[in-house]
Design a protein that fits this description.
- The chain contains one helix and 38 strands.
- It is mostly beta strands and about 450 residues long.
- The protein has a domain of about 110 residues.
- It has a 20-stranded mixed β-sheet, with no helix packed on it.
- The longest helix has 5 residues.
- The two termini are about 40 Å apart.
- About 5% of the residues have low confidence.
- Keywords: Glycoprotein, Leucine-rich repeat, Membrane, Receptor, Repeat, Signal, Transmembrane, Transmembrane helix.
Length: about 450
């Protein structure tokens, strides 16, 4: 809105130092341009080739603006350039002013060939995720004091030699590229807090060799890593190893005991038993789908504070006791496609439970759905030899999906009571056998 940004209420043009998002020094020289979708509404084109020499910071984010940027013509003393979610086009790294400490061009349709040696030697932060930057990274030529290197979602290739990174590096995010080969993680900087290397073509074992004191997040999913989990992996607050080829047993008692934590190990070949009592009480996400874990699951041992447990497509068996769980904070429980059997008691589920999937197991006998938690949204009991006892009026008003297909339905469906879609029905009332999918809309 040009009138609101550059003019006063009477339509008169404002002095440049009075424009929204413009900061000037005592001499009236512009030192900062801060135009975001929170401060101004602008669209069209912006040419940054003619910025005043006094400008130290340029922040333009989230606007419908196409940027013309010749790095060679940026003010020689500029220290910060942030151009997020806009149309920047090409960049030449060898023309960046040596004064730049912070460069951010996330999601800006930017393309060009990455030149590690051309980066300003004093650079501290580089973030260019979700662009189309190509080429390789010369890992030994990174700026010596860089703290954050975020280049995920580009087209970078080559190997990832992480054995000689700058000691100051706190964040390394190179996911969603085309890096290949094995990777060495035994000489990472002690300052490192976040390491994200998922969605590449990396292979081999993943060994740290030691516990890194500050590493809180390690995401390596969607590669072809193999081998086993090592004790040092379990000292990290957030671990994501989904969709690899890891094997072996896991001692969950070694996992980080303090702080919010997440453990994702799905789509691997882990096996052995899972003792829920060994999980850290601070865990907020426990995902082990599509592995080969077996044995029983004693739900009463689940730490009270864990909100999400997902163990679909494993080999768990035996009975599953879900009673006496009312004080748990569990919000989602997914145990689809295992070999659980016996009866089910759903009358004492956690009050916080919103999603429950027990489909494709071997549960049998009669189960009542008349005492589900008030806030439950989805329930899937399909493909179990169960006898379902249910009165539609007793279901939670919050329920949006109920799948009891391939079970024996015992109860009444009262037409006109709720807006219900019955895909396959045989007699509305009494004892019937049917393949039934009900969605409460």
């Amino acid at each position: 809105d040009e009138k609101r940004v550059f003019r006063d209420d009477n339509g008169n043009y404002l002095d440049v130092c009075e424009w929204e998002g413009i900061t000037c020094n005592h001499d009236g020289d512009i030192t900062k341009v801060d135009w975001t979708h929170h401060t101004v509404i602008l669209e069209g084109e912006a040419n940054l080739d003619f910025l005043p020499l006094s400008v130290k910071q340029v922040i333009i984010t989230g606007l419908e603006v196409s940027i013309t940027l010749d790095p060679n013509r940026l003010p020689p003393g500029i220290s910060e350039v942030r151009l997020w979610y806009i149309d920047v086009h090409a960049i030449q790294f060898d023309k960046l002013p040596s004064s730049i400490l912070h460069l951010n061009t996330d999601e800006s349709d930017l393309y060009g060939n990455f030149d590690t040696k051309a980066l300003p030697r004093g650079m501290l932060y580089l973030s260019m995720f979700d662009n189309d930057i190509s080429g390789t990274v010369e890992w030994t030529a990174l700026p010596p004091e860089i703290q954050e290197f975020r280049m995920y979602g580009n087209s970078l290739v080559g190997t990832a030699d992480l054995s000689h990174l700058p000691t100051t590096l706190r964040v390394l995010e190179i996911s969603g590229n085309k890096f290949h080969g094995t990777i060495c993680l035994t000489s990472l900087p002690d300052a490192l807090e976040s390491l994200r290397i998922y969605s590449n073509r990396l292979t081999g074992d993943v060994q740290f060799g030691k516990v890194y004191p500050n590493l809180r997040s390690f995401e390596a999913s969607c590669n072809t890593f193999s081998g086993s989990i090592h004790p040092e992996h379990m000292q990290i607050t957030e671990v994501n190893l989904d969709k690899n080829s890891f094997t072996g047993r896991i001692d969950f008692s070694l996992f980080q005991r303090e702080g919010n934590s997440s453990l994702r190990l799905s789509h691997n070949q882990f096996h052995g038993s899972v003792l829920l009592a060994d999980l850290p009480p601070s865990l907020y996400r426990f995902v082990i789908d599509r592995n080969r874990f077996d044995g029983s699951l004693n739900m009463i041992d689940l730490p009270r504070g864990i909100p999400l447990v997902s163990a679909d497509y494993n080999h768990f068996s035996g009975s599953l006791r879900l009673n006496n769980l009312t004080e748990r904070r569990l919000s989602e429980l997914h145990l689809r496609y295992n070999s659980f059997c016996g009866s089910l008691d759903l009358s004492q589920l956690p009050r916080t439970l919103r999603h429950l999937d027990l489909s494709q197991n071997g549960f049998s006998a009669s189960v009542s759905l008349n005492a589900l938690p008030d806030g439950m949204k989805t329930l899937n009991l399909s493909q179990n030899p169960l006898q379902i006892d249910m009165d539609i009026l007793e279901l939670p008003a919050s329920l949006i999906s109920l799948d009891i297909s391939d079970t024996v339905f015992r109860g009444r469906v009262r037409r006109g009571t709720l807006n219900i879609k019955v895909l396959s029905e045989s007699n509305a009332g009494g004892e019937v056998e049917l393949s039934l999918l009900i969605r409460l809309i």
